[in-house]
Amino acid sequence: MSLILLFVITLVMPSMAVIRNGGRMKSLKFASGGYIHFVPDWSPLVSAFSVCGWVKETGTNTYPYFFHYHASGSNQILMAADGNQMYIQGSVSNWAYSASISRNVWYHICTTWSASSRAYRYYVDTRLVGTKTTTSGRLMKTGGDITIGKYRGHSSSNNMFTGEIAYLNVYAKELTSAEITKIVRAGMCTNLAYPDPHESYREIKWENIVQIARVGSVTDVYQEDCIAFMGNILAKLKATKGVHNDTNEQLEEVLEEKVALETRLNSTLVELEKVSQNLTTSKNEHSETTERLEVVLAENKALSKSLVFLTSRLNSTLVELEELSRSMNRTWDWEVFLAEQFINQTFTAEHSEILHSTWDGIADRLVGFRITEEFIELLDHIDPDSDRPWSMLYSENYFDEIFTKDMATRLTSIWEGITEKMVGITLTKEIIDLLNYVTDKSNCGT
C-alpha cells in the first residue's frame, strides 16, 4: 500500500507544478476579434493528424472558426465550432446541421485524418458527425501557420470565434473513435492528475499554446471546477496517509497468508505428483492386464474351436456306439447256413448278396401271419425258383410266432455288416455250431 501511495503522490505533485506553470488549468476566452498566431513544425503531421479540444461558443457569428492551419496558399485545416464550413486540403464540407451545437455549452470537438484512410472525420462528444474522402496520395503541406480564434487574414466578425477553448492539442496520429472516447470520458480536468492517454503523440500542446503572445482580447480563465478537482485529490491523499499504517499491518498479514498459501500449494503439488505417479503405475498395470486378457481370449477362442471339433467327433462316435449296441443286441440266426445252398459250401460274395436281399420287398407282406410248417412250405412252393432260404423260419425265433413288423426289420438287416466278413469260409456243420455258440449271450463270461 505504501508503494501505491508513493506512486500517486509522485504522479500528482509534479503534474500540479506543470499545471500552474504551463496553464493546464486555464481555458482561453476569445472576444472582440482576439486570436493567437504562430508557426508550428508540421513535419510530424504530414501523413496523419488529429486536432482535438474543448470548445464553448458564446457568440452568434456565422462562421465561428476557432482553428485554422494555412499552408502554400490553401486552407489545409479550417474548423468551425458549429461544424459550418469545415475545410481539409482546400476542400470544404458543411456539417452544422448534423453537429447540432448549442451556445454556452462545452463540447469536445475532434477532427482526424490520415493518408492511408483518406478519411477526414468530424467528432462531437465522441459522436461521428461527418466524413469526407480526400484525394489519394495527397499529404498535408508543411511550412504553414496556425491561427486560433479566427479565419486567418480575415477581419470580418462573421469569421471570428467568440467563446472559450481549453486543452486544445494536435496529435501525430489518426485517433480512433475508441481513443477519442477515452479522452472525453477523462473530462476537462482529469488530465491534471493523470497524463494524456495519447501523450506520446501530442506534437502541438495546449500548455505551450497558452504561453504564446496574443493579439486582441484573449484572456486566461482558470477553471474553478478543475481547482476544486485538485483540492479533492489533495484531501484524498491526506486521508489516505492517515490510514497508511493500518494498511501496512494489513499488508503484512496478507503477506503472511500468502507465505502460508504458498506452503500449502507446494505440499499439494507434491501430493499431486505422487498421485500422478500412481496413475502412471495403474495405467501400466492396466495395459499389462489388457494384454493378458487378450492372450486368454485368444486361447479361449482356440479352445472353443477344439471343443466344436471334439463335439463333432463325439457325436459321430455316439452314432457308431449306438450302431454297435444294436449289433450286439441282434439275434444271429446261424441255422440259415444249414440250407442246402450254403451247407458245406465256401461262402462267397454272391451268397452275401443273397442274404442281404432275401427279405427285401417281401418281409413286410408277411406281417400278421403265424409262421407254421404249412406256411413255410407254402412260401417255398410259391417261390421255388428264388434263392431265399425259407427254411430259416423253422428256427425258434420265428417258428410258431405271429410275424411282426419287428421281425421283418430284423430279417432285412440281420446280415448287414457281417456277411462280407465271412466270404471265403466253408460253412460246415461244425462252423455253424461254433458261430451259434460264440453269439449265444448265455455263454458270456464262461
Task: Provide a short characterization of the protein structure.
With 446 residues, the chain is α+β, with helices and mostly antiparallel strands. It is 42% helix and 20% strand. The longest helix is centred in the middle third of the chain and has 86 residues, at 244-329.
Fold and architecture overview:
Residues 1-22 have low confidence and may be disordered. Strands 1, 2, 3, 4, 5, 6, 7, 8, 9, 10, 11, 12 and 13 form a 13-stranded antiparallel sheet that branches. The protein starts with a helix and ends in a 7-residue tail after the last helix. The protein has 446 residues and is α+β, with helices and mostly antiparallel strands. 42% of the residues lie in helices and 20% in strands. Helix 1 packs antiparallel against helix 6 (224-242). It has helices at 2-22, 96-99, 177-186, 190-193, 206-209, 224-242, 244-329, 349-357, 373-382, 405-413, 429-439, and strands spanning 26-38, 48-57, 65-71, 74-80, 86-88, 91-93, 107-114, 119-124, 127-133, 145-148, 163-171, 202-204, 214-222.
